[in-house]
Every structure is written in structure tokens, then in C-alpha cells.
Design brief:
The structure is a single chain. With about 525 residues, the protein is an all-alpha fold. Helices cover about 80% and strands about 0% of the residues. It has 21 helices and no strands. α2 runs antiparallel to α13. The chain starts with a helix and ends in a 14-residue tail after the last helix.
Length: about 525
């Protein structure tokens, strides 16, 4: 299977996940609107999500996947399975303890992440209660991350890419069928989150069993003494700092937003959902496929192959992140209005959310680029360099906040995140070039010309539509609004892809075979 086909499988599943996620967010916006309760929910859900990214999908995967790929390539199947058993046992034990501590320390955690909520005691107390109900989500998601890492390393990408759909379906069910029966409807979302976490773990178990890779529990103390496990822990330490830097930035931004106008946390959350569409479809998909392949190429000393993989990934980022950023920037208001506007999500909410979307779009290429450039270091088990760069980017982001937040309020937070991501990606690129790890291959000049022409046509096309359509004032049926926005998006895609085709680019140009 080509690496392009693997990335396409992940993108396809991720697209389904994002579509169900949009349906979920549309329903939440229409049922719960924008209020102190929704701010409390997004703050509470951010806490286990933050630790999930820190322990599970972040530092753990960055340290575990290269080691697992190396074990699969250089050791016997029995040794690789033993390595999985020990890592899984230690991870499960640690995250279970963290879950218990999180439930006990919920008031302190909410105060740390959103101290501005203390000015509204009801909202603060709601956030604390929701945190206690949802914090164990980190246990399920850590195990999901472990399972996904194993399946991805064995080139089974579909199930790990599809599992987020289950969280969305759980939240949709909770919103439609549980919320109407609760005295405090917002707590239905906590039920949906926990049910979704359980289901995401449960569906991966059969595939692990089929491959003979389902972990066997081992005494965590014994597991921690294994040299390979200790190597993972050693790699995780700098990685924790690296991922932690990004999460600290999120914490700071959430805290700042909690002091701004009520609804700011919610507006940013919905803007973040739209921004995650291209980030996940391109950045996460490519990063997920590239890390095992880069790790395998590096472990086998295939330097040219390693360079070609990075070049391929970066060309895809340039070709698709730029038009995606233009689309979000110019069509953000239309997307927000069509998807979320209702009696409980009014025209002002549309405007406030779309300004945040605009802020994020300015840094979309950086946000996606990091997903490709960072694995270039992780595959070499070099985590210190991206950590140092991330620390510098954190400082730069907060400097941008000092300028942008007074000027643009909550949208300034989104803009600072985007600008900081571009700085981060730029320095990662320079570091790869300076170390001789990455050298651009032929074809970049022609690609940039094609992108420029396509982007220019896209700006004209979307500019004309924005001139004639006021999205918040459309009075037609919702299904017609959806049809209109889809027609605009499809038209933009056809125009841009047609331009690339006119320059001679074909689907076959995107195929790169994998390294086993």
C-alpha cells in the first residue's frame, strides 16, 4: 500500500469524524446556545483533553511509536509483544492514578485553567462538577492512544482513524435523548463524553486480539525496570516538556478568555472546531502515517528515503493548507452562520466566532506544518530540539497576546496561536535544513507558481460570493443554506484543483510507497 493511500484512508475516516463532529456541535449550539453552562462545559472538557494530549497522543506517542517501530523492525515478534505488554501496564497504572487525583483536585484545576470563572460562582461550580464527571476520560483515551499506536505501526490505520466518530455519536445521543430528561441538561454532555471514551477503546480490542497484540497486564513496577520501557520514559521526559509547552499555551489562552466577555470560551471552542477540519484531514493524517515510516527509514539508514518522505509531506501541506486557510478566512462567517446560527446562537455569536476563525486561519499552514516537521525529529528519537523550539514559540505567542488581545479580544487569542504556530514551524524547518536532515527536492518552484495562481483565483471567487451573500440574513430553509455553502465549497475545490491540474499535477504524483 502506498503511503498516500494510507493517508487517504485516515483522511477519509477523519472526514467522517469531522462531519459527525460538526453535527454534534450544531446540535449542541442549537440546544445549549452560548451561556455560562457552555463555558463551564468547554473548560471542564479541556482539562482531560489537555492531559490526553500531554500523556497519551502527545508525549507518549512521540516516544513510543519510534521505539515500537524499531522493535518491530529489529526484534522478534515475541520481544515486540513483551515490550507492548510492559508499556501498556505501566501506562494504565499511571493514568488511573492521575484520573483519581484529577477528580479529587477538580476545584483547584478549574481555578488554574479558568480563574476568571470565579467571578460567576454558578459557572465555576458547574465546571468543577463537570470536571469530576469527565476527568476519567483521560484513562480511556490513554489506552485508545496506546492501541492506535500499535495498530498504526502494524499499518492498520482505518480503525484508529474512525474511533473519534464514536465520541461524536455518543454526544449526539446524549444531546438529543438524555439532556431533555435532566434537571441540568448540560450534564448530559458529561455522560456522552464518558460513554464515547469507553466505546473508542472497546472497538479497537478485537483487532489487537486478531493480531496477537492485545496487552497482557504485568506488574507496573516490574515493567518500569525494563530497559526498553525506561528508554521510552527517558524519551518522554523532554517530549512532556514539548507537548506541555503547547498545553501551557492553551491553559494561558483559556484563562485569558475566562476574563473576557461571557461566551468567549465557547466562541473560541466553535472556531477551533472549524480550524480542526483541515488540521486533522491533512496534518494529523500525514503525521500519523509519516512517523512510523520515517522511524523505519531512519532505523534502516535510508537517508534519501527519509528526505523524500519529508519533502512529500511538506509539498502536500503547501498545496492544500494555503487554499484551506483562504477558504476559512473568507468563508468563515458563512460556515459559522449555516452550521450554528439559531435562536440560541444569534448573529452576534456568528460574528464573534467567525472573527476567531479568521485569527486561526492566519496560522493554519503553521499549525499543519508542525504535524509534519516535528515527526522529522521524533523519528530520530530527537525530542529535545522540538522542545526547545516549542518553548521559544510559547514565549513568542504570549508576546503576540500582549499586542493582539487588547486589539481583537478573544479573536486576538486565536491570531496569536496561529502566529506562534508559524514561528514554530519556521524554526523547525530551519533546524532540519541546518542539520542536513532535510533538503528540498526538485519541483518546488513549479508547485509554488501553481499554488499562487490557484490561490489568486480562489480569492476572487470567494470575494465575489461574499459581496453578494449576507449569510446571517438568509431566510431560506436550513437545508437550502447547507446546499448553498456546500456548492460554494465544491466550486472552490474544483477551481483550485483544476488550476493544479492545468499545471500538470495528477493524483499519481502524490503516491509514495511505505517502508516496512
Amino acid at each position: 500500500m502506498s503511503i498516500f493511500r494510507s493517508a487517504a484512508v485516515i483522511s477519509g475516516m477523519t472526514l467522517l469524524s469531522r462531519i459527525t463532529g460538526l453535527i454534534r456541535d450544531i446540535l449542541i449550539a442549537r440546544v445549549f446556545g452560548v451561556s455560562g453552562d457552555t463555558d463551564a462545559y468547554y473548560v471542564a472538557f479541556r482539562l482531560p483533553n489537555l492531559l490526553r494530549r500531554l500523556f497519551a497522543e502527545g508525549a507518549f506517542q512521540q516516544a513510543f511509536v519510534p521505539m515500537l517501530a524499531d522493535a518491530r523492525s529489529t526484534r522478534s515478534p515475541q520481544e515486540a509483544k513483551s515490550f507492548i505488554d510492559k508499556v501498556a501496564s505501566l501506562l494504565a497504572f499511571v493514568v488511573l492514578l492521575v484520573s483519581i487525583l484529577g477528580v479529587l483536585a477538580a476545584p483547584v484545576l478549574v481555578w488554574v485553567i479558568a480563574s476568571g470563572l470565579t467571578e460567576e460562582p454558578t459557572t465555576f461550580n458547574t465546571a468543577v462538577q463537570l470536571t469530576r464527571y469527565m476527568f476519567p476520560y483521560i484513562f480511556f483515551m490513554s489506552m485508545v492512544a496506546l492501541s492506535s499506536s500499535i495498530l498504526n505501526t502494524w499499518k492498520h490505520f482505518a480503525i484508529p482513524a474512525a474511533v473519534p466518530i464514536l465520541l461524536n455519536l455518543s454526544l449526539i445521543t446524549a444531546t438529543l435523548f438524555i439532556a431533555p430528561h435532566l434537571e441540568r441538561p448540560i450534564f448530559a454532555l458529561a455522560i456522552g463524553v464518558m460513554s464515547g471514551g469507553f466505546l473508542q477503546l472497546f472497538v479497537q480490542i478485537p483487532q489487537l486480539v486478531k493480531l496477537g497484540l492485545f496487552p497482557r497486564f504485568i506488574n507496573p513496577i516490574t515493567a518500569a525496570k525494563d530497559p526498553s520501557v525506561r528508554r521510552v520514559l527517558k524519551l518522554m521526559v523532554p517530549s512532556l516538556f514539548g507537548v506541555g509547552v503547547a498545553q501551557i499555551s492553551i491553559l494561558i489562552n483559556t484563562n485569558i478568555a475566562s476574563f473576557l466577555q461571557e461566551g468567549s470560551v465557547t466562541w473560541l471552542a466553535y472556531a477551533d472546531r472549524l480550524m480542526e477540519f483541515p488540521t486533522a484531514l491533512l496534518g494529523v493524517a500525514l503525521g500519523t502515517v509519516l512517523l512510523p515510516s520515517l522511524s523505519a527509514a531512519f532505523s534502516k539508514g535510508l537517508k534519501e528515503r527519509y528526505n523524500a518522505l519529508l519533502d512529500w509531506g511538506l509539498k502536500l501541506v503547501a498545496a492544500f493548507a494555503i487554499p484551506a486557510a483562504i477558504g476559512l478566512a473568507m468563508l468563515g462567517e458563512g460556515l459559522v452562520a449555516v452550521l450554528f446560527q439559531s435562536a440560541r446562537f444569534n448573529a452576534n455569536d456568528v460574528f464573534q466566532t467567525s472573527t476567531a476563525v479568521l485569527g486561526y486561519s492566519c496560522g493554519l499552514i503553521g499549525l499543519i506544518g508542525i504535524k509534519i516537521l516535528a515527526p522529522g525529529f521524533y523519528a530520530q528519537k530527537n525530542i529535545k530540539t522540538p522542545v526547545k523550539i516549542a518553548c521559544t514559540a510559547l514565549v513568542v505567542t504570549q508576546i503576540f497576546n500582549l499586542i493582539n488581545v487588547p486589539l481583537f479580544s478573544h479573536a486576538g487569542l486565536a491570531l496569536s496561536v496561529g502566529m506562534g504556530a508559524c514561528f514554530n514551524a519556521g524554526v523547525l524547518m530551519l533546524a532540519l535544513r541546518k542539520r542536513g536532515v532535510f533538503t528540498p527536492l526538485a519541483g518546488w518552484k513549479k508547485l509554488f507558481i501553481a499554488i499562487f495562481v490557484g490561490a489568486a483565483l480562489l480569492v476572487v471567487y470567494l470575494g465575489v460570493i461574499q459581496h453578494y451573500v449576507v449569510w446571517t440574513e438568509l431566510t431560506c430553509a436550513w437545508i437550502l443554506k447547507v446546499a448553498l455553502i456546500l456548492a460554494v465549497v465544491v466550486g472552490a475545490a474544483v477551481l483550485y484543483l483544476g488550476t493544479l491540474a492545468a499545471f500538470g499535477y495528477r493524483i499519481s504524483d502524490l503516491k509514495v510507497s511505505e517502508v516496512d
